[in-house]
Design a protein that fits this description.
Number of strands: 11
CATH architecture: 3-Layer(aba) Sandwich
Low-confidence stretches: 88-96
Largest sheet: 7 strands, mixed
CATH topology: Rossmann fold
Helix content: 25-40%
Mean pLDDT: 90
Strand content: 15-25%
Structural class: alpha/beta
Strand order of the largest sheet: 3-2-1-4-5-11-10
Distance between the termini: 63 Å
Number of helices: 9
Order of helices and strands: HHEHEHEEHEEEEEHHEHHE
C-alpha cells in the first residue's frame, strides 16, 4: 500500500524498477547492443533509481557510477552494488571506480569527457529542465579523437512516447494525485494534458528532435518500443504472452507510433571551431 509520501515521490520522481523481469532484460540487451565496446569503459547511469541496471552493467565496466536525486534510492543503489560485489574495484580508495552520487541531472558532478557511455532510463521526463540535463549528458561524454581513431561516447536514452494510449505516471484530478495508468491523457491538447500531468513529460519524435538540436551529437539509432507487459503475464499468462508478441511485432510497422517508450542512441561528434 502506497503511503502519501510514496505517492508524492512517485508523482515527482517516478517509480524506479524494483524487480528484474523480462521487460528489464529486454531493455538491458538493447543497452548492451547500442553500447558495444563502450560498455567496458567508463559508464554513468544518470538517474539510476535503486540501481537495477547499474548493478548489471558495472561488472563489465572499467568504472561505473550512478547519479540519483533521491537520497533514499541512492542509498539502496549503493547497497545493491555492494551486495553484488561491484564496489570492489581493486584500486586505491582515493580514486574509487564504483559508486553512487546523489545529485541533479542538470548539474552533473563530473568533469568534461568523463564517460564513454551515459544511460538515461526513463528519467528525462522528470527533471526540471530537460534541455539542460541533456546538455550535461553531452558535456560529460568522451569526445571523439579522429587522430587516434577514437569514437565519441554515447548517450542511451529511454523516455515516454506521447503516442502511447496511457499516461503511466498517474494524473492530478481535483487537487489529488491519482497513481496508475490513465487512458488517452497524452492525446489531449498539450495545455490540457499538462494540467492533468504537470509532474511528468511525454515526448513525440519531433519533441526529441528539437531537444537535441544544436548539441554536439549525431543520432545513430531511434525507435519506439512497446513494453513487456510482465504484470499482465503474471495474472493471465497466455493472454499476456500473446499481447507481448503482437505488440513487439508492431514495432516493425507504422503502428510503432503507439509504443510505450522512445529508444534513442546519440554519439558525441567533433565540433569545428569557427575562426571568423
Amino acid at each position: 500500500m502506497l503511503t502519501p509520501t510514496d505517492l508524492r515521490k512517485a508523482a515527482e520522481r517516478g517509480e524506479p524498477s524494483y524487480v528484474w523481469r523480462a521487460g528489464q532484460d529486454r531493455r538491458l540487451r538493447l543497452i548492451q547492443q547500442a553500447a558495444g565496446t563502450r560498455a567496458s569503459g567508463r559508464i554513468l547511469d544518470n538517474g539510476c533509481g535503486v540501481g537495477l541496471y547499474l548493478a548489471r552493467l558495472a561488472p563489465a565496466a572499467g568504472s561505473a557510477y550512478g547519479l540519483e536525486f533521491d537520497l533514499e534510492r541512492a542509498s539502496s543503489a549503493q547497497q545493491r552494488l555492494r551486495k553484488d560485489g561491484s564496489l570492489s574495484s581493486g584500486r586505491p580508495p582515493v580514486q574509487p571506480t564504483r559508486g553512487i552520487v546523489c545529485g541533479a541531472g542538470e548539474s552533473l558532478p563530473f568533469r568534461d569527457g568523463a564517460f564513454d557511455l551515459v544511460l538515461s532510463h526513463e528519467v528525462l521526463e522528470h527533471v526540471r529542465n530537460d534541455r539542460r540535463a541533456l546538455e550535461e549528458m553531452c558535456r560529460v561524454l568522451l569526445p571523439p579523437d579522429s587522430a587516434r581513431g577514437i569514437d565519441g561516447g554515447r548517450i542511451i536514452l529511454f523516455t515516454p512516447n506521447r503516442g502511447y494510449p496511457f499516461e503511466t505516471h498517474g494524473v492530478y484530478w481535483q487537487g489529488r494525485y491519482r497513481f496508475g495508468n490513465v487512458p488517452l491523457v497524452n492525446y489531449l491538447p498539450r495545455r490540457w494534458r499538462d494540467r492533468l500531468a504537470p509532474h511528468v513529460r511525454a515526448y513525440g519524435p519531433a519533441d526529441l528532435k528539437r531537444l537535441f538540436e544544436g548539441l554536439p551529437v549525431r543520432i545513430i539509432e531511434r525507435r519506439i518500443i512497446f513494453g513487456a507487459y510482465d504484470n499482465v503475464i503474471a495474472r493471465w499468462p497466455l493472454v499476456g504472452k500473446l499481447m507481448r508478441s503482437v505488440l513487439q511485432f508492431l514495432e516493425r510497422t507504422p503502428m510503432r507510433g503507439l509504443g510505450l517508450s522512445h529508444f534513442w542512441v546519440a554519439e558525441k561528434i567533433e565540433v569545428e571551431l569557427r575562426t571568423d
